[in-house]
Amino acid sequence: MPPRLDPETRVAAMLAHVRASGLKLTPQRMAIVRELAFDPTHPTAQELFERLRRTLPTMSFATVYNTLDTLASAGLCAALSLSPGPARFDANMEPHHHAVCDRCGLVRDVPSGPDSEQALAATTAVGSAAPGFSVRSVERIYRGVCEACSRAASEV
Predict the structure, then answer these.
(1) Handedness of CA 130, 77, 9, 38 (dihedral sign)
(2) pLDDT of 81-94, one tens digit each?
(3) Distance CA 55, CA 73 (A)
(4) Which of 28, 64, 120, 129 has the least CB density, counted as fewest CB within 10 Å?
(5) What is the rounded distance in angstroms from the CA atom of residue 44 to the CA atom of residue 89?
(6) Angle at 102 between CA 116 and CA 62, to 5 degrees
(7) Where are the extended beta strands (E) located within 25-87?
(8) What per-residue string of b and e applies to 82-107 under the rule 16 or more CB within 10 Å gives b?
């Protein structure tokens, strides 16, 4: 597995791609990219908007959403539907899995190892069940309860 990019390297790569695609590097876009790259929680557009409007009070929710949509379309982040509710955005584009808390919705990356026989078997099963379907990636979602929610439940 390639080494995971540190957030600063990810920010530089994302901004370079935005620039190369002909989009202006506005203060709003730069702030959205930076916030997303440094956030391991896979924030929603609303969460990013609420954090960033403190320092960029004139920025609209549409700017945040449209920027995230542009980044996802360019392959610089992923829009994920991991649980009920709005999409979450993930700047980590390296192969990995996710752990999702059933209570609070916390999302964390789980490193994935090299392609396993299990993933290959799953890909073969998909091909059998849906002839002609082309598998782009395989990921697992681990659902359970995070440490904070477990602690809170035990204190009740």
Answers:
(1) negative
(2) 887 789 999 998 88
(3) 26
(4) 129
(5) 6
(6) 95
(7) 78-80
(8) beeeebbbbbbeebbebbbbeeebbb
